[in-house]
Amino acid sequence: MPQRSMAACSATSGSNAMTDQPANRRGLEELAEGYDAFILDLWGVLHDGLKAYPEAVEAMQALKARGKRLLLLSNAPRRTEDLARQMANLGLSQDSYHHLMSSGQDAWTHLRDRPCDWYRDLGRRMLHIGPPHDANMRDGLDVSLVHDVQFAEFVLNTGPALQSTEIGSLEPVLRQAADRELPMICANPDIRVMRGEAVELCAGALAKRYEELDGEVRYHGKPYQGIYDSCFRLLGDPDPARTLAVGDTLHTDIAGARQAGLDSAFVPGGIHASELGVRMGDLPDPGTLTALFGREGEHPTHVIPAFRW
Question: Which domains does the chain have, with CATH numbers?
């Protein structure tokens, strides 16, 4: 039986979820004095996949003006240079934050540097499951791209090739790869993401199905510890007790913060909006929110209606 669900070069086990009721906050003004560094999710917190939230841009400017360090952390399966251009197009210029890290960058760095035996043993023939705009994930790597599972030594998974809500045509490829016991690198642990009002599958959904087929997966990104180690190096090793992670997804943003020993702020108007019956800027009914936290087993430190000052 292959060892699975590994993050980067080692597995990570977290502590039990907090059970204290999170505090509702109006915005960042109530939180800023308690923290020196902020690790911010992008999609569902700072933008909706189409454009930046104006209040979020204003809040980032307010935090920077008060000397806070801002790092944007995305589970996007692409390099940070590409992600920075995308953020600028959405209205988040590079001067609005200090650092940027992505799950794609973390995966690419591991494939380039081969820092442990698992990566060194992968081989060089790579099957890439992903859309055309993720092609730069292959740039600068000592790999040979193959298009037939039969010739591959491992799989790089950056998500469905088309905007999709079902795995569909990828099922046969996943089955063939699992039958050949090919290791899979998942460059985005997210299961789904919002694009405007629509929800799309991400690489994490394919990885989950691959595990159901008894395939081996290495994950890069939230909620795994390795990505937070990279963030802390970029931020200059701030005090974890004075670092706040902000996100809209309980099983990645909030779980990752907990496992890394950080306080967290949950934005309910993101990916969980439909099940909570809210829009961005709203606070859910307390009972509905408590029920969601109970189902997910995650309890953030704070709840904010939106990333706003």
Answer: 23-75+223-303 (3.40.50.1000), 115-219 (3.40.50.1000)
